[in-house]
Amino acid sequence: MSESRTDTEAVELANTAFYEAMERGDFDEISDLWLDDGEGGISCVHPGWPVLTGRGEVLRSYALIMANTDYIQFFLTDVKVSVLADTALVTCTENILSGGPAEEGAELGPLVGQLVVATNVFRRTPDGWRLWSHHGSPVLAESGDDDDLDGADDAPDDA
């Protein structure tokens, strides 16, 4: 097996571990998956949030999300991994199902679905691949009409 293929698989495993730790609400594992501050400044953008920089800010955001989310599940699609030397880029679509606090007498709060496109950047460390940056952007609308991308059909006729 080539080194590149092994790196790709290792990055895929690290990416999967990140989302599984989120699903379990495992803050310690989330912390372990991010680079230490001494290995390069980390950053994170959650959908609708400003850019968070530094390990403290980023990890606080995950603690906040986990504290206010009773249930979350990620179904990843369109996963693409690129590895160049000691840096890896993962792009994917996060199909998210989540639920907040339950109302009195209910097991779960209302479930909400959301689509987010994400970019995760990993760096190789002596301890394996670690997250350097995560950026998630909400998908606000889906268009099934790829033929109309240039807008030519919307132009008025001059005749």
TrEMBL record:
Domain SnoaL-like positions: 11-139
Transmembrane segments: none
Alphabetized InterPro entries for the sequence: NTF2-like_dom_sf, SnoaL-like
Name the UniProt record assigns to this protein: Nuclear transport factor 2 family protein
Organism taxonomic ancestry: Bacteria, Bacillati, Actinomycetota, Actinomycetes, Kitasatosporales
